[in-house]
Design a protein that fits this description.
about 150 residues; hydrolase; P-loop_NTPase; helicase activity; 7 helices; hydrolase activity; mainly alpha; two-stranded antiparallel ribbon
């Protein structure tokens, strides 16, 4: 399957790299525009037409504060468009844990897939000692995998 890169912005997908790893400026610009508030877009359109005015206030920075991701909405969108499975990257182990914890009510596996995953997990965990099989990390990973979420 050719790898393509998309940005999910305000309930829409924007392709930013095609299957040949070519950057798509058009997709990036569209995603950037979609991420702006209505007032910001109106100001930029007026500015492009030569109309001067006061820019809208900048949004407050959220650096260092936890902002809950819209993972559920994104995954529902991807499921509706039949774009699953999907790989989502985060380069922070802590964020990976937080994001997966926010998906506790999500189940991406059908009954048949659940059975296959269960068999695979049990076979894999049989190599561990009984004490290791009940470690909190293992219990949590087992739950996530049974619902179709890997971390």
């Amino acid at each position: 399957v050719p790898l393509e890169h998309f940005l999910y912005v305000k309930k829409d997908l924007f392709k930013v790299f095609d299957s040949n790893s070519k950057f798509l400026e058009k997709g990036h610009s569209a995603a950037k525009l979609a991420s702006k508030s209505k007032k910001e877009r109106e100001f930029e359109e007026a500015k492009a037409k030569g109309i001067q005015g006061k820019p809208p206030p900048k949004q407050q920075s959220v650096r260092g504060k936890y902002v809950p991701p819209q993972w559920r909405a994104m995954l529902d969108f991807l499921k509706e468009k039949d774009f699953l499975p999907v790989i989502v990257f985060t380069f922070s182990r802590v964020k990976c844990e937080e994001y997966s914890a926010s998906l506790t009510s999500l189940d991406l596996n059908a009954a048949r897939e659940k059975s296959e995953v269960h068999i695979f997990i049990e076979r894999s965990l049989s190599r561990l000692s009984p004490a290791d099989r009940v470690l909190p990390q293992i219990v949590r990973l087992r739950d996530l995998l049974s619902r179709g979420i890997g971390v």
